[in-house]
Request: fold
Amino acid sequence: MSLIKLPILIDPHTHCRDFEQNNKETFETATRAALAGGYGYVADMPNHSHPIVDKRTLGELKDLAEKQIVTDLGIYLGVTPQSVSEAEKNFRECEGEVRGLKIYMGETTGGYIVDSDDDLDKIFRTWESNKPILVHTEDKSLVKALELAEKYKRNLYVCHVSRKDELELIDKFRQKRKNNIWVEVTPHHLFLSDKMSISPFGQMKPPLSSDEDKEALWMAVIKGEIDTIGTDHAPHTREEKMGIKPPSGVPGLETTLVLLLRAEKEGKISREKIIELTHNNPIKIFNLNKEKYDRAEVVLVEEEFLIEENNLKTKCGWTPFKEMRVSHKIVEVNFDGKIGYKDGEILAVSGSGKIV
Ligand code: DOR
Ligand code: ZN
Ligand code: ZN
Reply:
């Protein structure tokens, strides 16, 4: 029985839910799912039932999360059309406590889209920080984000790139080298495509793309054009997904590492690349404590099995990767000097994670 060890994973893109959406997930269940999937750090997206946009909402999130988390947690500040007028004050008061600023430049869960040119210009101008501006973009809004980041020399982190034409566009802007542009890809865009009939459980934003796009994403991974893998873990209940208007989003924290290791076995990605995308690069981009996360590790055993829903720790209890064959099982996760997960059980105590 051969064991393998990897440094613990860092997820720059998780939706922990909680608040009025604690039927979908809570900080506790999200971070338990994270630990079971080999993650020691997740960064929470601000599109909560009430968005995290200022000192007050940031404080509420911290109060709610700190007693629950079993991994470390990062926070992003959000900005909505309603909060733009207070941008200067909010950014000044919150910049030190967050890992970056998230802007929804496309319609998605929560409905916090900012699409006025004036608002967007003001946001990019006012965020005078080296910490990245993260963008959810679809179609035309990607050009806008790239142009504004270049205009104000801001560090830009493009979430969930899913298509070949987006990669080409980003490449053009990168050649000018005026600012940092980091690119994230999700496990669902790497491992699923629009040919698979898994709707509504495969409905997310941006939607699953063609096999050609998927291949372009893998090529970009190999060529070094992708910086991180963000799970975009976005749980919704089974009932909601099966309703007449299913919400967009899929869970991903518990399946990403094993899927990547299967891809390694198939010769699609190297072990070094997996570590770069899930550990080294997120630590660098978000300026995290390298020593702490370098010491933490995930132990896996080589064993073929099918991904099953009844073993999941996420509260939503389903996965779009159901019944996919994988080649490794996570047996132990060591985090912060302790065994946090072992053989299906979470041993880490609620509240043991830190907000950083
Ligand atoms: O599919 C998605 N779900 N895409 C997003 O950008 C947001 C997320 C969510 O919060 O449900
Ligand atoms: Zn998004
Ligand atoms: Zn997201």
